[in-house]
Write a structure and sequence with these properties.
Layout lengths: L11 E3 L4 H4 L4 E3 L3 H10 L9 H14 L2
Parallel strand pairs: 1-2
């Protein structure tokens, strides 16, 4: 039996924690504006297709700015 695709699994981490800084394939919980800006800088060199945090932060900031 093969291992499941790690990108297909959902792992939820606190946006304020260190895991959010070092892991790309996680869903963020309790994201705030200052932390979104920090995480955007930390994950800015990652491609959005390969980094869920990069994509989630970009969408969150876009929604925050248009609300």
């Amino acid at each position: 039996m093969s291992n499941p695709d790690p990108h297909a699994q959902n792992m939820f981490v606190d946006a304020e924690g260190h895991l959010a800084e070092h892991m790309c394939h996680v869903q963020l919980l309790s994201l705030t504006f200052p932390r979104a800006v920090e995480l955007r800088a930390l994950h800015s060199r990652h491609r959005p297709d390969d980094c869920r945090v990069h994509l989630q932060v970009a969408v969150w900031l876009w929604e925050w700015g248009s609300g």
